[in-house]
Amino acid sequence: MTLIQELITIRKSDTKRFDTEVWDFMDLVDSQQHGGSRLHQMTPNDLVKRLAQIELNIQYLDDGVSDYQDRDHNGGWGSPWWWYRARHWTLLEFQRRHMVPEQSRELAPAPTLLPLFRGAYAGGTELLVRVSRRQWLLDALTLGKLRFSPAAAYQNSALNEARADDEMSKGYIRPGNALRITTTDGNSINPIGDVRFATERRVEFSGSLVDRPYWMMSFSSDLDPRIFDDLPSNDPIEDAALVIFDVAAFVHRAVPLLFRAAPGTTFETVRNIYFDPYNPPAERMSAVRHKLMRYAYQREVRLVLDPGSGPPIAAGGVLEVEIGTLEDVAGVYDRLGNKIAGSGPPSFLANV
Question: What percent of the chain has pLDDT over 70?
Fold first, then answer.
């Protein structure tokens, strides 16, 4: 039995929260209100990708053991039931099209970590985890070298699928059948197909829309060694993780030096909110805070520097700041769990 099959079997036993009859009824009502399924206009290839992304995230985010009673279906991506419901609704679209789902990528079960390495999503302590090349992380550990990139730089075809994204705009989709567009003369237009909307980091200046850039450095809230496969360096031997155990001390050291290097900016620690573009959240989305559901397994926490209406940071390029050693509050570990340098236990694994 694959991991995804095992997790589904476990969760199906909770019939109160894994209630396919309720989910079927919700899908029926929603389809009636919108004149068809929200996924009706997806291409077959995109539908296959959607299911694969959902099942990948389930394998990353659900351990099959935690009760998650404080996370209901409507609590968003942090609830496993939210993911199983999204999967069920996606499979309904497969059925309507008489398509047979393909077998998704299979992950191994997550290894058991020492309690110190259980992050906020797993119900543990507050951590910051950065996966990258060993030497870069050792520089971060010993020198406190932080690297903030312009958010727009992540829309780059040279980056792999897990890293590339449009961080200046967050789009979502509404079924055209549920919308009516009214022209300035009062006439109505019926949209053909899905209608795409976007929240963008742009402001009006002299009659034109211009980008409002910001700079970011990405971490994860949790350590999951399986993510080395999705965020690899060029050489597996170089794969490593920087684990910051005392986040408050790290931020306390970093902020004054960041403000000195980038005066006039604001600093914020942002926990990403992941959303389904076909079932977007009711609240207004933010290009800084929101991210497509397919990235949820990364459990991203980003450090954000925002110049607002001031001049660009580092003349629009990368900002590098050294805040001093982090060896007393962080450690660097290889992909097998062994500590390379810094603070923390000799291994992040519980069974060594």
Answer: 96
